[in-house]
Design goal:
The protein has 284 residues and is an all-alpha fold. It has one domain (48-277). The protein is 73% helix and 0% strand.
Length: 284
């Protein structure tokens, strides 16, 4: 028995567990660890190429991000001042989206498609906010940054001047209607993501990781992971393109062009893998 198990055993004993109950706990832990190991082996064997494609895409985006940051640093203070708040806001939003992309990739690797899709919901919202800030510029970007020190969620958007002074609060829906994004494109997926996040009957009985006809439980699943993986890559590309559009230098645009081509490959790999593993799946 290693030190961790010995410590846990002592705590269980202190809590009133009998020797047989303690043994049952360790048996359950061992089973859970074995199931985790088995699933990760399955995941790597069947989805490994797709995960590699996701990681490859991430490295391309990070390279382009570093290039645009270097370009911004090379500007004079006067040149920076023209878009400094917009750049800072979009750069920070894009960095947050990049982290969430990695979180989603970790979840799909471990067979948690519902959690991954719920996390994509946040990425999508970041893309809407990025689009709104890009559209309305420096004044709005400055207010967005200042709001980080307050409890303000969306009222910073009042600085755009497009809302009535009588409006009490700005909502996410308001931003979605006014930003330069096609709301219909992601409407259905965003609705599903909301159901997944909240304690809705749809998200409870229609879990993404449960293939139709197989029932659902709390186990990891190789089913349903293509959707959040693809959506997260598409959304990261979108948010990144907004950032890079501020200073479209040749080096950054070349990297982004390559990443766009690779994104098509990534989508094809995930779709082909899903079709191969679940040939009878009725979902598109």
């Amino acid at each position: 028995m290693n030190k961790n198990h010995e410590s846990l055993s002592q705590r269980l004993k202190k809590a009133g567990f009998s020797p047989s109950e303690i043994q049952s706990v360790f048996t359950g832990i061992a089973k859970m660890r074995a199931e985790e190991k088995s699933f990760l082996e399955y995941s790597d064997e069947n989805w490994g190429a797709a995960f590699n494609a996701s990681e490859c895409f991430y490295t391309m985006i990070k390279q382009a991000t570093a290039e645009t940051a270097a370009y911004f640093d090379s500007l004079t203070e006067e040149e920076k001042s023209l878009k400094q708040y917009t750049f800072t806001a979009l750069f920070t939003l894009q960095n947050r989206a990049s982290q969430q992309y990695l979180e989603i990739l970790t979840l799909v690797k471990n067979g948690f498609s519902d959690g991954a899709f719920a996390r994509w919901r946040s990425m999508y919202e970041l893309s809407v906010i990025s689009s709104f800030i890009l559209k309305y510029g420096e004044v709005v970007a400055e207010k967005f940054i200042e709001a980080s020190e307050s409890q303000d969620r969306y009222d910073w958007a009042m600085a755009s001047g497009v809302f009535s002074e009588k409006k009490r609060h700005v909502t996410f829906g308001d931003l979605l209607k006014l930003c330069d994004m096609d709301a219909e494109v992601c409407k259905e997926n965003y609705t599903v993501a909301n159901q997944t996040v909240h304690a809705s009957p749809q998200g409870t009985f229609g879990r993404l990781g449960a293939q139709e006809g197989t029932g659902s439980d709390s186990q990891r699943s190789g089913y349903g992971i293509a959707a959040p993986a693809i959506h997260s890559a598409n959304t990261l590309a979108l948010i990144s393109s907004m950032l890079f559009s501020l200073y479209p230098d040749e080096k950054t645009m070349e990297t982004m062009s390559l990443s766009a081509k690779w994104l098509d490959e990534l989508i094809e790999i995930y779709c082909d893998t899903h079709e191969k593993l679940f040939p009878d799946d009725k979902e598109e």
